[in-house]
Amino acid sequence: MRQYSADLTPPWKKPQSVPEVAAEPGLVVEEPGTGFCGAVIRCEAGTVTLEDRFGKHRVFPLEPRGFLLEGRVVTLVRPSAGPARPARTASGSVAVPGARARVARAGRIYVEGRHDAELVEKVWGDDLRVEGVVVEYLEGVDDLPSVVESFAPGPDARLGVLVDHLVPGTKEWRIAQSVTSEHALVVGHPYIDVWEAVKPASVGIEAWPRVPRGTDWKTGVCEALGWRVANTGEAWRRILDSVHSYKDLEPQLLGRVEELIDFVTAPS
């Protein structure tokens, strides 16, 4: 006697199977119900946390057919246990688990101001502690030649200096050229202020405004963006909070900081 299936649903009405994709950190997906698109930063039992390009986090349930991957419906699943990927620091370096801060070197890295120092600390802080490199700020570079002379850099005490707006022909350029010690390295980025070295998209703006000559740059930026002009410190916190890793910074700054770290930590 022939047996017939109890399922009389026509094939074209049956839900199509979709691929299961492990919710690995960094995987970019979209939740179609809300339109929220972001990278996976955490996957726990039953939920996944996404971070969008503005740094906003949203938690979603791991439901079947719950996400879009490159426009295709997928089911996210919790990654299976396996060999752990090496953790990364904010600068992209391989993290050293349990590493203690090294005793500070005699060498130093100087940056122009407090904002520069805070940004370097946020992205390269882990690396600098492992290497024993201390970052200090100068409050401007007008007295840089005398600062270098007072520091007296040598083979075992190298000095690296990061300068804002280091463009040929500028005051900063002429000052940097006056530093001639072979144990001191002065490099810089082209931006008027380190604020500009943060990618506009990371801050949630289309571009950094052009500020008329003669106007304080930070004040002009706040005015153009509709931020509170009276509190540039608040504006800086907003910018710094948008930086999560080296990916949020312009290459012109990344390359120069890495160059200084290599210089200061090179064997004597």
TrEMBL record:
InterPro entries: DUF3097_C, DUF3097_N. Transmembrane segments: none annotated. It comes from the Bacteria. Residues 20-79, 108-265 form the DUF3097 domain. This is DUF3097 domain-containing protein. It comes from Streptomyces gancidicus BKS 13-15. The lineage of its organism: Bacteria, Bacillati, Actinomycetota, Actinomycetes, Kitasatosporales.
